Each structure stands twice: as structure tokens, then as C-alpha cells.
Target: non-specific serine/threonine protein kinase
Amino acid sequence: MAPRKGAAANKSGSKGVPKKRVAANGFKLPEPIAPGVIITDVAKKQWRIGHSIGVGGFGEIYLASCEIDKPVSNSADYVIKVEPHRNGPLFAEMHCYMRIARPEHIETWKKERKLKRLGMPKYLGSGSFEYNKERYRFMVMERFGRDLQKILEQHSKRFSFKTVYQVGIQILDVLEYIHSKEYIHADIKASNLLIGYKPGTENQVFLVDFGLACRYANDGKHKEYKYDQRKAHDGTIEFTSRDAHIGAHSRRGDLEILGYNMTQWLCARLPWEDNLQDCNDVFAKKRGFMENISSFISLCFPDTEPPGLNEYLEYVVSLAFDEKPDYEKCRNILREGLKARGYRDDGKLVFMSATPVLPSKKSKARTDRKVSKRKSEESDTVSNEESEEIEEPLRNRKVAKKRAKISIGNLEKKEGSPVEKENKAKANLKARGRGKRKDKIAVGAAISVPYSGIVNPTPQMLALMKKNVVI
Model:
């Protein structure tokens, strides 16, 4: 079956010859592969290709199934990454997965450390095949959900404090596993962090895209610290570690990259993002700020410093180039940070907006909320998808508020009660004052909303009503 011909092919002026697809980084993209094609991996297992679900910097990702006798459904549990043989990035990633991501290795690690989950993708198969006289390389993986970058953009480019630290703890788990295999990831960022797709993995983040992963040691011997022009500034420039800026590879570099990510997720922008085209300038600024972390934190968070972030970065900076990090110490720093803000490490990911969102006209009045210092820094507004995941403190506050309204309402309705008598007296006073209120409105005086028109008053509003205060 011939590949699809896009509109670009018709505009090129060559009849019947589709225009070659090229990624932004210059790599040739594979020609579209028709759903239904069956390929065989190196272990002789067959896979059926479904429709495309995404295009990357060097290849394309398709849904896949091991049930080759029927079409691949939209709910397929697997995906296949495909790239032309001449490219290369998938070749490096594939061999990295083969060494460190075999399912049995991951499960053994989880059992030894008593982990309920680990966001390390599993290698399920790989190989090569020919399609329309073109040779392609492929790798089979689990299917994942949305990436954090898309979620981040839906929340004003900032995550809540709990979300950031909870994700950080999960990534530290993955880094400890990867580093135990003598590899570093080198490109941690929101677009490479995916939420689980299968039921039960909704609160799990997976670190994907090992295209820049490389060995920092060989058989226990750490590589030396030296400049390598070929790999200098590798990675995503705003997060690249100081070691990676000179082409050196280290475990502390991965922890530093994670620190930059957490900082950006909390404050939305890093100090060196104004000049990302100049790699040396970015490198110089990172060195300067990491030599004075307090000034870095103060610049990023002029109002309130996130508890634990300074301590985490100070620890990363204190590590020697070839030193093994204390991963549990790093996790505990973040856990203590959560505790300082009234949260706990419950493993739940609640993607809340960190930027205050104005309530709609139909929403309940929120002027009565006496928000604590912690809550004033991050909005409690949550998307419909995550509304069931709201933290316990917020839920308790809403329950208490509801009970208060019920108790006050019952007291007011009770005939002969002091409150009921007081309300009747207020009603008479209000009736006599209506004419004056209408006159004020008629001449353009400031209009106040009478409390009788409030559908769902809060306990604080009811208290004001008893004092005959117009609100």
C-alpha cells in the first residue's frame, strides 16, 4: 500500500512524488505508514501498527497491538516508535532501553526497594522492517497519557507546590534506578514526563525519551571531568546542567536539571531564559547563581521561598563530580518541604493552577474565604478532571462551611427563637427604609447588593446579616 500523499506534495510541483518530511532539527521523518502493517521484532514477536498519534524530532509514534488478527483499537496499550535507518537517535535510545529497561530488571528493583511504582518505561521489543522500499528502525513501548508540558500550559505555566514536589520525588526514584545501571538521562523536562495511561497509573509520572542518555561510568569506573566539544551544551538549554555545558556526564547533573525544572514549574521562568540562543551566556549565569543559591532563590521567589528548594540545590552543588548522590536525602528534603506547607507525601498528583483564577458569575461568592498564607500563594481551583483529587484540608474546610450554613439556617427557621424574632424586627426596619434606598439608587448613588438576594450565603455573610449590615 502506497504512502499517503499530503497537500505539500501537490504544491511541490512534482506529480506523484511526495515531498520528503523533515523535522525542525533536520532529521528526515518516516513516510506515513498505513494502519494494519505487521512487523516482526528481533525476538520474532509480531506487532500490528495502528494510526499515528504523534511526530517527534526524528521519528513518528504509532499505536500498536500484539493481536495481529484484528485492527488496532484506539485504546491500544502499546506504541511503536519508528525512524528511518539513516537517522540514528532511536538507535541510541533503543540500545539504552535494551540495557536498562527490561521488564524483569525493573520489577526486581521495585521488589528489592519495596516500591509500589516506578516511572521507568519498559522495553518490549525492537527491530527493523522495510516499507515502500525504505528501511525503518522501530521500538515497542508501553503507551502513556499526556505529557506534563501540555498540562503545564493549561495551568498558566505553573504548577502548585504540592504537584512540583510530588513529581520531584517520583523522578528521584527513576534517576536512582537509571544511575544504578551506570546511565544518566540528561534531558529531564516537562515534555519528557508522561502521565500513566493504564488504569491505576493515573498518579504516576514516567520519564521517557532516552535519546540523549549516556553512560557516566564503565564497570564502576567513573568518566573523568573534562571538556568535550562534541557534547557541550547537550540537552534542553534552559535546564542543561553545568557539567553538561562542557560535555561532561555526571549523576549530579541529572539532579541539577531536576532542580531547574522544579524551580521553573514554581515560578514560571528561569533568570537565564532571556538569552537562550547564547549557550555560553546561559552557562555563565548558571555558574554564577549556583555559587550564590540564596540570591537565585530570592530572584525567582521575591515574596515567599518554597521550603526545601534552597536546601536541595545546596546539596546538589556540594556533590563532587563522581560522587554518588544520597537519593533518600533528596527525597526527604522534598518531603519535609511538603510537610512545612501542610501536605504529605501521599503519592497523588493534583494538577492545580498556581495562578489565581477569577471566579465565574455563577460560582459561589468567595470573599468570605480567610485564606492562609500557604493557600494565598496557589489557587485552589482545580480542573473538572482532577476535582476528586482535591487535598484533604480543602475538603474539610468545605464540609465545615456546609455544616455551619445548615445549623444557622435551622436556627433561623425555628419559630419563636431569638434569631427568628430578631429577623422579624429587622424586616420591619428594612421595609421602612426601602423608600430611601430607592431614592439613592435613582440619583445614581453607589448600589449595594441586598443580602436577601444572595442565594448561597457563607457563614461570615450570615454573621453580618445578623448585625443588619448591608453586603
User: Anything to note?
Assistant: The chain is about 40% helix and 15% strand. The chain has three domains: 21-142, 144-359+371-390, 411-466. The domain at 21-142 is CATH 3.30.200.20 (Phosphorylase Kinase; domain 1).
